[in-house]
Every structure is written in structure tokens, then in C-alpha cells.
Amino acid sequence: MAQTTEHRPPAPARTPRTPRVHRAWSVAAVTFVTIIGAAAFASLPGLLIEPLHTEFDWSRGTIGFAVSVNLALYGLTAPFAAALMDRFGIRRVVAVALTVIALGSVLTVWMTAAWQLVLFWGILVGLGSGSMALAFAATVTNRWFTARRGLVTGILTAAGASGQLVFLPLLSWLVEHHGWRPAAVTVSLAAIAVVPFVWLLLRDHPADVGLAPYGGEYAEKPAPVTGAARRAVTVLLKAARTGPFWLLAGTFAICGASTNGLVKTHFVPAAHDHGMPVTAAAGLLAVIGVFDVVGTIASGWFTDRFEARRLLAVYYALRGVSLLFLPLLLAPAVHPPMIFFIVFYGLDWVATVPPTIALCREHYGEDSAIVFGWVLASHQVGAAVVAFAGGVARDVFGSYDTVWYASGALCAAAALMALVIRRPGRTDGLTLR
Questions:
Q1: CB 3.0-4.6 Å disulfide test: which of 139, 270, 383, 397 passes with 71?
Q2: pTM for the whole thing?
């Protein structure tokens, strides 16, 4: 009898495991918690101006300069954050960034000179927060999700506003009842408390745990990228030769000036100048964070249906009008017109982001993400300038009224700049040679 040979099929290629709840959701949850923790240090600067001025007799311009360094470094570091994560991994970069933030915040407790505030809060916290920035959420979403990317991006974007809602009332209560030092320590603890979650639960890539991205196919983890930073600079130099880049950067600089630089930094001390308790003013800022989420989602819906540059013009015009009325609304108590301003302004807070991203995509294609990173840097530089200038104006004029009116005029200029942006293929002399 002839011997038969059994032919076995070849071993199948490595296939990803399919857990009931995909690991991508736990990674997204850790990212959400991390961004909420990061919102603590973003919430504090506006609460520090009056206490530091009272205790150290530093001018508001000096304190505003430290905040401006923080905002500027946040923006200028952001375009390179993705390159750092590609080179060293998400987990390492975020853990180190949170540790640097915690260190910079806690060291302010022992400071005795203004230059130390610039070093600790401006440089250390600025570099730490910039190393996370929007690149953290974008990198996690791109690596771990193929399906539901829009949903996850929206949730992670909302985490910043949610964190503001959580921490602002708490930090303002600490500042008013126990002084600014416990508030600074709280920020430090919030940052360092997230580090173990990042280190133990976050993974750089689905392949690290033998999984495919959520809704996608398994792929091996790519090798570390070493030329991403060079590409970021190359794309900047290329985009800087075009007119739309400067118009987008200019409008977004005014966006940062009229939000992070002005309202987030100076609204609380300005309201306190009119007799409003710090806790009440901080509560109003937290409400802005709530309506910020609603306005951003709505703006994304509008951007899919209407021309982006016209949306930008409307947003900036409405924001400018609201800022012109704000000096008339500040009072010792919260009244209905002020609540209307908070809701209206909150809906417009970052409504400019979706149409700005859409315009970057229209004009710069596959380089649009990097171009938007540099446009975001201009946003933070604009915020930094007004954070400093607002404090100087308060020292010189004795009130913030001039700052509100000037910001309203800048928003009107941004509305006109948005309308000048042409559709791709119609440069009309806007390409710089």
C-alpha cells in the first residue's frame, strides 16, 4: 500500500487579535484624561495676575510677559511635537512633557524674582505644553483609528474645554481662599498624576500590542522617522512664498490675540477691577468652555456646507462686535447681558478652527497638516503679544477698556483678511516671488 503524504496548508500570516472592546478606546480614554489634566495649567495664568501683583508688586506687564513666553513657546514648539513623537514615541514625549510641566509649576512656589516666573512658568511650562499641543490628539487618532476618526478627534478636542470647566472653579476657589501657591501645587499634582496612566496604559502604535487600528487592517509599526522636523521647516519655507499662508496666519494670530491672549488671560482681572469676585469671573470663563464645544461642532457642520472664507469673515466680525460691547457689561455682579455675551462669545471661541483647517487643506493638500501647525504657531504668537500688551495697557491706562476696543478693531481687520483669501487656482497676485 502506497504511503500517502498529508499536505497541510501553509501557516496563516499573523493576524491581529479582536478583543471585545478594542484597545484603541482605552488609549483614547487615557489621551482624554491627559488633555483634561493639561487643561489645569492652561486655566491658571489669568488667576495669577492679581495675586502676584499684590504680593510681589510686579507690574501686570511683567506678569503678562511671562504668560506671553508660555503662549509663544507653546505655539512654536507645536509644529515639531509630531516629529518628536515620531522619533521617540508618544508615551515618552508625553510623560516627559507632563513632568516638565509639573516641575515648572511647583518651582513657582519658591520664586522671589520676576525672571523666575518667566523661567518656570514661561519657559518650562511653555515647552512642556507645546510638546503635547494638538499633535498629541492628532497622532493618537491617526495611529489608533481608521474608523470614527472624526468622532474621536471631536471628543479629544472637547477635552480641553472640559478640563477648563473642571479646573477653573477649583483653582479660583483655591486662589481666593488659600492663595495662589496651593493652586500652583494643584496644577503640578494634576500633571504628575497623569504620568503613570500614560506610561502604563498608553502605547505608541497598535502593532505594539498585536492589534490593527480600530476599523482598519493590521500593519507593522513603522521605523522611527528622523526627517520630520526638516520637513516641517521645508513646508514652512514653501508655504511662506504664497499669499494665502500669510492671510491665514494673520487671521489666526488675531484669533489667538482675541481669545487666549486677551480673554483667557485678562478677563478675570478685568472683571475683578469692576468688583466681580474672582470665583464668579472664573465661573464665567468655564461657561465659555462649555459653549466652545457646541460652537466648534456647529462650525464643523457649517464648514461642510458653506464657503470657509466667508464663515471666517462672519465669525471674526461677530467676535469683534461682542468685544466692543464688553466694557459696558463688566459689573460687580453677573447680570443677563453678561450671560448673553458669555454664551455668544463661547460659541465663537474656536469656531474659526474648522474653516481654517479647511482652507489649509484646499490650498496646501498633503502638506496641509504641517501648514496648519505653523498657522497654529501664529495663533499662539498673537496670543503672546496681547497677553503682554494687555498687562502693559492696564498698567498705563488704569483699565482694560483700550484693550477690548483694540481687539474689536483687530477682529474687523481679520474679517476683511478672510474675504481676501482666494480659492485655489485664483492667486490674483497673491503668490510671493
A1: 383
A2: 0.74
